[in-house]
Amino acid sequence: MNIKPLGQRVLVKREEAESKTAGGLFLPDTAKEKPQQAIVMAIGTGGRDKDGNEIPFNVAVNDKVLITKYGGTEIVVDGETFTIISESDILAVIK
Description:
By secondary structure, the chain is an all-beta fold. It has a single domain, classed as 10 Kd Chaperonin, Protein Cpn10, Chain O. The chain has no helices and 8 strands. The protein has a 6-stranded antiparallel β-sheet with strand order 6-7-1-2-5-8, with no helix packed on it. The radius of gyration is 15 Å and the shape is elongated. The mean pLDDT is 86.
């Protein structure tokens, strides 16, 4: 992958949305909600606080994370959809 986010941004790939309800009904793409679970694909170059100290990332590549539903910017690279989000849009790391 040739994408390197800048600053405190993270490149994630959202997991696929469920296409079938618990009752067995299939959902069309327009009825699916955006999934909130994602895999970290790349992390940014980092940032600095007001004193010039480096701010460490709280996530690493391949971490499974919970992100805000509508945050970030979606991009398409080689036919795959990714989302670039601020690290602050990551709600939790899923272990």
